[in-house]
Amino acid sequence: MANCDASRKLIFKVAVPVPLDRLFDYLAPDGCHPAELKPGIRVMVPFGKRCQVGVLLAVEHSSKIESDRLKQVIEILDAAPLLSESDLRLLQWSSRYYHHPPGEVLAAAFPVALRQGRPALLQLPRFFSLSRQGQATLPEQLRRSAKQQVLLAMLQTAGGAVPASALSDYKPALKALLAKGLVQEQAPGPVSLPQLAKAALCANPEQQAAIDAVIANLGRFAVSLLEGVTGSGKTEVYMQIIARVLEQGKQVLVLLPEISLTPQLEQRFLQRFAVNMVSTHSKLTDNQRLQAWLSMQQGYAAIMLGTRSALFTPMPRPGLIILDEEHDSSFKQQEGFRFSARDVAIARAKGLGIPILLGSATPSLESMANVVQRRYQLLHLPNRAGNATTPSFQLLDIRNKKMQAGLSEPLLAEIHATLAKNQQALIFLNRRGYAPVQICHGCGWVSRCRRCDANLVIHAAERLLRCHHCSSEQVLPKQCPACKTGELQALGLGTERIEQTLEAVFPDKVIVRLDRDTTQRKGSLEDYLEQIHAGRVDIILGTQMVAKGHHFPRVTLVAILDIDSGLFSIDYHSSEKLAQLIVQVAGRAGRADQPGKVILQTRHPQHPLLDILLSKGYRAFAQSALSERRQAGLPPFGHQALFRVQAAIAEEPQRFLQAVCQAIGELNSDKVQVFGPVTAPMARRAGLFRYQLLLQSPQRKELHQLLDNLLPAIYALKEAKKVRWSLDVDPVDLY
Ligand code: ADP
Ligand code: ZN
Ligand code: ZN
């Protein structure tokens, strides 16, 4: 009898967010009803000495573990599943594909608040309007409160319902008017009907072709790649397609690489669409992100704009996914669950049976190859929209040229000429700080980080030497720590130093520096961008940050100071990244009615990459780079997975990887090549010694089969306990 009882017990299969590659069995809590137990609800479970929020994936009647050893679920947190079956399948597929523990992958689908077990409670925005009595009341009649008078007058001017967020300065007054019956709360409205708030532009023929092509695919899975230079009107294409999806009552997910780009796009969308729209990114509070997620999940919002982590936001009425700047490497998560938001977004669109649109001025080589193989449909906007012209390029050979801290004289002359015409110049250098290293002219001492194989960067304004890899810092020495007498010099260039030079050369001009150091304070980037747009800035100087998507209509000169360092990197990705960067930075020039000019300072004007890119364009570059990759068997023609390992004791990572190699040998897979173990390009970081091992195979399937068989063996290795290791499937950089 006891047996029979036990077999009737319900066993919960739960994904618990711990670094173990399996699900965990729990006994159902007392008195739960099997009919309500759908996969996708959150449960609180005991785990070790702590409680964890897990996700229920299945309910079964048996477990391999004896039931008296099983622990019981503490609490069921959701009445209904938060994730759909399709999304649960996607997440489980992602866990297998990236060989990452399922509990951690599922956790990635939720905003932090839900991961912590907070209730999935959507606080709908509240709206207030005047009652009949309120409409008939004159503000002067509210003699005793000025605030109430102002509020009443405001609501009378507004005429209709006003969101609570607009009344946050009037909380007590609002309460008082509610109590007096002059104001009433509206019942939360339905999702507002899609209607164009601001008319669409009249699409040019190429735009129209792109719009039609994607619209023809609504309701089924298809991948389209929209290739168009900056300013060619991609965003306009997105908006016109979105309008159609909204008309069908469906939802749209728009993914962007950068937080800083959301406000701009949000603004344009707000002007165009009269629907509920939410944004989500890391600068919002946990509750704001929870509310944005729930707004989509409950179908209240019709559009979500977000960065990588928004990818898994549930949509009850999915219509379309757009992923802008698809080539951007920030779509790849670089720690923990190392997924590619682009690749998983495509898998998601497939699972949901909806189209996905990738956009870029410089599509990734992977996507270009998929176009060639007819997996993606290519849509092309060859010209700039409106009347903006394409910028002209100039390679400026700086060999033997007189330089002022990184700026050649011909370049300075160009900047002068641009400013004289009252136009803006944009200077790009991908290195922040004052100079990348401090050196002693007397004895050759250099400022090295004690914990990393890296130099300490000079931050002159803060009087600091700082490591950009582990953030350790020290006061900038005035005297050489080694010989005490030699003269200390700054070696190389950073944006801070360029800024100083520019200030000296152009003392009466306004220079704005945009890099991680100047934009740390919340809102500072927005302030700078506003100044730039208002035309109060003459020279914009910056790192990556200026390369991405911002509109600088008054910029007519763009200068890239140092491209040479990107020409000779050991990582095969770097030429692709450099070509993309050059085109992207160039895209900031001459967006309005002024033609733009792009100057590249180099000591290698004959370099084949620069030659093909500038004479034949990005597509020709991509074709040639792809044929090189094909010959070398590199992605996308080969498939890679990279083990990264680190430990405080130098020998441990190597020992671990040797054990991994041995396990690979025992699996006998001759279709997977093994490179390593080797020391990582940065052999020591933050005090840890680093090694890596690269696996590569012409067949994706072979690689994944090997990993499937290998990983259980790795988890069981005793060497694994002494190191921190991770596996990066489809790595986008080999560092
Ligand atoms: P992208 O997203 O490719 O950088 P945008 O959509 O932002 O390009 O368009 C660049 C500029 O051209 C914007 O100012 C936009 O309003 C304008 N534009 C886009 N499409 C058209 C069009 N069909 N007619 C006129 N102007 C357009
Ligand atoms: Zn010295
Ligand atoms: Zn360091």
Outline the structure in words:
It is globular and about 80 Å long. The N and C termini lie far apart (60 Å). It has five domains: 5-115, GIY-YIG endonuclease, CATH 3.40.1440; 127-186; 205-381, P-loop containing nucleotide triphosphate hydrolases (Rossmann fold, 3-Layer(aba) Sandwich); 392-435 and 492-628, Rossmann fold, CATH 3.40.50.300; 639-729, 2-Layer Sandwich (Alpha-Beta Plaits). Mean pLDDT is 90; it is low at 1-7 and 190-195. Helix 8 (205-215) runs parallel beside helix 9 (234-247), helix 18 runs antiparallel to helix 20 (618-632) and helix 21 (651-667) crosses helix 22 (700-716). The chain is built from 22 helices and 32 strands. A hairpin with a 6-residue loop joins strand 22 and strand 23. A seven-stranded parallel β-sheet has the order 11-12-10-13-14-9-15, sandwiched between helices. With 735 residues, the protein is α/β, with parallel strands linked by helices. Bound molecules: adenosine-5'-diphosphate and zinc ion (2 copies). Adenosine-5'-diphosphate is lined by residues 201-204, 207, 228, 230-236, 385-386.
